[in-house]
């Protein structure tokens, strides 16, 4: 098996751990393989790659799209983040639930981990390290008309962000996100 697919507390959200091959010179891994992803029930085609660079305490999210929902395959290239997925699928047993995951850049001691967040979820992250670079592949293109944001500190969701003395730095868009109870959510399929 080229990669391990690990279930998470949220239905359909998966941790992906590619197998690494290494020696004293370093390591090699296959991050994406169309056949392996398809066999694991993950998407085999992506439409767009996005990369962000952020400093400690930057909090991005909780973002999602209507009309052209995006599944996201999230990977940390440098640093560490706390990544959050919120299930917005009204017909899901996990509707309104969230899960958080510490993702770090791979190193000699840290395995490579990617987080698969399917369509119908909101996504956000908090930078834990001095800086972090995050790369995520999406299953559809950015659709500005459908772009939506739920307030990162929504009291109903009650996400336990690991702020530990940090005052999060958020964009004006994210600071003005909708409350979960008032948000326009994806239609029930």
Automatic annotation (TrEMBL):
Metabolic or biological pathway, per its Swiss-Prot or TrEMBL entry:
Carbohydrate biosynthesis; dTDP-L-rhamnose biosynthesis
Q: Which UniProt keywords apply?
A: Isomerase
GO BP, one annotated term: polysaccharide biosynthetic process
Q: Which GO terms describe its molecular function?
A: dTDP-4-dehydrorhamnose 3,5-epimerase activity
Catalytic reactions of this protein: dTDP-4-dehydro-6-deoxy-alpha-D-glucose = dTDP-4-dehydro-beta-L-rhamnose
Q: Does Isomerase show up as a keyword for this record?
A: yes
UniProt-annotated site: Participates in a stacking interaction with the thymidine ring of dTDP-4-oxo-6-deoxyglucose, residues: 142
Which enzyme class, named as a word? isomerase
Any Pfam family the entry gives: dTDP_sugar_isom
Q: What EC number(s) would the UniProt record show?
A: 5.1.3.13
For the keyword Isomerase, the answer is yes
The UniProt entry's GO CC annotations, sorted and at most eight, read: cytosol
Q: Which InterPro entries match?
A: RmlC-like (IPR000888), RmlC-like_jellyroll (IPR014710), RmlC_Cupin_sf (IPR011051)
Active-site residues are: 63 (proton acceptor), 136 (proton donor)
Tree of life domain: Bacteria
The similarity comment for this entry is:
Belongs to the dTDP-4-dehydrorhamnose 3,5-epimerase family.
Q: What does this protein do?
A: Catalyzes the epimerization of the C3' and C5'positions of dTDP-6-deoxy-D-xylo-4-hexulose, forming dTDP-6-deoxy-L-lyxo-4-hexulose.
Q: How does it assemble?
A: Homodimer.
For this entry, the protein name equals: dTDP-4-dehydrorhamnose 3,5-epimerase
What is the species of this protein? Granulicella arctica
């Amino acid at each position: 098996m080229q990669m391990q697919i690990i279930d998470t507390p949220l239905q359909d959200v998966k941790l992906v751990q590619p197998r690494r091959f290494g020696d004293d010179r370093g390591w090699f891994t296959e991050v994406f393989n169309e056949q392996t992803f398809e066999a694991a029930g993950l998407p085999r085609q992506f439409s767009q790659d996005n990369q962000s660079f952020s400093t400690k305490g930057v909090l991005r999210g909780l973002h999602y799209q209507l009309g052209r929902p995006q599944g996201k395959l999230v990977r940390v290239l440098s640093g560490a983040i706390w990544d959050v997925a919120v299930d917005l699928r009204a017909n899901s047993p996990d509707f309104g639930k969230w899960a958080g995951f510490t993702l770090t850049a791979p190193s000699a001691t840290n395995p490579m981990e990617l987080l698969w967040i399917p369509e119908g979820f909101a996504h956000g992250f908090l930078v834990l390290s001095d800086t972090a670079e995050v790369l995520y592949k999406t299953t559809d293109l950015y659709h500005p008309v459908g772009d939506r944001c739920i307030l990162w500190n929504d009291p109903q969701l009650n996400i336990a962000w690991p702020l530990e003395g940090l005052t999060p730095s958020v964009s004006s868009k994210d600071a003005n996100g909708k409350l979960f109870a008032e948000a326009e959510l994806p239609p029930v399929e």
